[in-house]
Amino acid sequence: MMEKEEKGHPATYEEVQKIHPLYFNIVKKRYWWFALSLLVIIPGIISLFMHGLNLGIDFKGGTMIEMTFKKPVTQSAVTDTLQSVGLKGEVQLSNGNASVLIRTDALQPDQRNNLMTALQKKVGDYDKTTLQEDEVGPAMGQELTRNAFWSLLIAMGLMIAYISFRFQFVFAISGIIALLHDVLVVLGLFSIFQWQIDAPFVAAVLTIFGYSINDTVVIFDRIRENETRMRRGDSYEDMVDKSVWQTMRRSVNTVVTVLIALFSVFILGGESTKIFSLAMLIGVFSGAYSSIFNASQILVEIKTHMKKPPRKGGKPARA
Asked: Are the CB atoms for 104 and 82 separated by under 8 Å?
């Protein structure tokens, strides 16, 4: 098929259908895909309003303790020690697993003393001269949330401008709606299951935003290419369906490769990377779904409603 296209003879819709043994008409079933998305998004939105998000200390404030042990330690040993004194928190290791950064809820003096005693007894001796303790206020979390919000708005604005310039404005609107779908899926699931979010979660959402639009643009590029080859009487729906299937293998191969890497990080990366990798796993999967099953289908819906009604004695305008 590629050789035929390179010689200036694009593959026909029928040829594309025959190449894919699992072929089915994606575009004509678009309302099923929209319904499936709503089935995930609506409970998430309800949960966001009712329960909100489980904010970590990066957002609501807490205590940060940075300490250096005299020998390498394990993350599980520090985490178990936190739990033994009734505390929960995030533990990050560095400097050959000798330096430890602990983030937990704001500690009272007796809680702090119990924790330091337990760390000395169960984990090992630490250098008291380099011990650092800081209180993180909720104002920092408010600034982080505000900056993330503005980052998303600026990213959306630049994406709309770029896609409108490269394609058409309707392509940009379709792509942005699909991106918002991915963000809502991630936020909704984190709200429903009350997984704690922190600063890396914000980084994950911004990364998802950029990753998802990449696959969507690839599909849009094929749609634009095939649209210029349409003849009078050709179906716009069939052309979009053909375009989606022509990029299907690339989309599936890319997302499977990324998901394997992210799953490995989630399983083997330790507690400090769990939230980031979990958010990325959900977002990348949702992004692949929205690129294939939502973005181009939204484009079809917009183009269909943009068609002007036929004038008396005339022919309907093509989108």
From this structure: yes
Distances (CA, A) of 277 to 21, 93, 274, 284: 33, 17, 5, 10
Question: What length is written for the chain?
Answer: 319
The answer to whether the predicted template modeling score (pTM) of the entire model surpasses 0.85 is: no
Structure tokens at 121: 């007894």
pLDDT band at 172 (very low <50, low <70, confident <90, very high): very high
Mean pLDDT, residues 18-32:
92
For 159-168, the CB contacts below 8 A with 24+ separation are 159/213, 163/217, 163/220, 166/217, 167/220, 167/221, 167/224
Element (H, E) at 76: helix 75-84
- Amino acid identity of residue 259, one-letter, is L
Q: What does the pLDDT read at residue 233?
A: 82
On the question of pLDDT at 6 being above 50, the answer is no
Owner of token pair 């729906």: 237
Spell out the alpha helix ranges (H) of 193-247: 199-227, 236-246
For residue 31 the two structure tokens come to 């309302």
What Cα–Cα distance (Å) separates residue 53 from each residue in 87, 102, 151, 197? 20, 22, 20, 7
Run of H or E including 303 = helix 296-306
Q: Which residue has the tokens 């329960």?
A: 51
Contacts of 63 (CB under 8 A, 6+ apart): 57, 103, 104, 105, 106, 107, 112, 133, 134, 135, 136
Residues in Cβ contact with 177 at an 8 Å cutoff, skipping those fewer than 6 apart:
294, 295, 298
Percent of the chain with pLDDT over 70: 92
What single-letter DSSP state applies at residue 294?
Answer: I
Check whether 142 has a pLDDT greater than 80.
no
Q: Which candidate, 116, 101, 143, 136, places its Cα nearest to that of 271?
A: 101
